[in-house]
Design a protein that fits this description.
The chain is an alpha+beta fold. It contains four helices and four strands.
């Protein structure tokens, strides 16, 4: 092989090596690009999953806080209700056990309040047996006189001591069209309901 052929062969080999280097460099660049893209996708999926896990944890924390808050409020409401019932049970017991002038004054106020609301008519009057010596027909007529004045003559009463009534007085129209329950138990219940409404506001 002469020198000219040798140079030509070297040039062909050198050119081939350059092309091979360019192809190799391009391949490496493409590999790096694909690897980077793959890494980014993996990182993105990992971050998405982390975000999902964080969101799930945050939701579970909120659910737990809500549950704890509801349980705390439920216990507080139960305790409040127990306190209300205990207070009014004691108050009702004291009212039912009071005697003499204080009880008499209370019955007068309750009876006249009921008659003012009911107006004249024929009524069955229920009260505690222990108040039978106080609540008489004459006593009721006086209550009607104070509450109704000119229409007092249109009032008629039938007395009915009742063991179910521990204090206070209840008026029931003979035709059952009207009822005014002014017993201690009913008054205490109404006051309890009013207190619950006030506390709820």
């Amino acid at each position: 092989m002469d020198s000219q052929e040798q140079r030509l062969q070297q040039e062909i080999i050198a050119d081939a090596q350059k092309k091979a280097e360019r192809i190799r460099a391009k391949a490496l660049t493409e590999k790096e690009r694909l690897q980077q893209k793959c890494d980014q996708e993996i990182a993105s999926r990992r971050q998405d999953r982390l975000d999902e896990v964080e969101a799930e944890i945050a939701q579970q924390v909120r659910n737990l806080q809500n549950s704890l808050g509801m349980e705390k409020r439920k216990r507080w409401l139960r305790k409040r209700e127990e306190s209300i019932q205990e207070l009014f049970a004691q108050t009702q017991k004291q009212a039912e056990e009071c005697t003499d002038s204080q009880r008499g004054e209370s019955l007068i106020a309750l009876a006249e309040e009921a008659l003012t609301a009911l107006h004249s008519g024929d009524y069955l009057v229920e009260f505690a047996p222990q108040d039978a010596s106080l609540i008489t027909l004459d006593w009721l007529k006086q209550r009607a006189q104070n509450a109704l004045a000119d229409t007092v003559h249109d009032c008629h009463f039938e007395l009915k001591p009742s063991a179910a009534v521990k204090g206070g007085i209840r008026f029931l129209a003979r035709d059952q069209s009207r009822l005014f329950d002014n017993t201690f138990a009913t008054r205490m219940q109404l006051l309890q309901d009013k207190m619950r409404s006030l506390l709820a506001d």
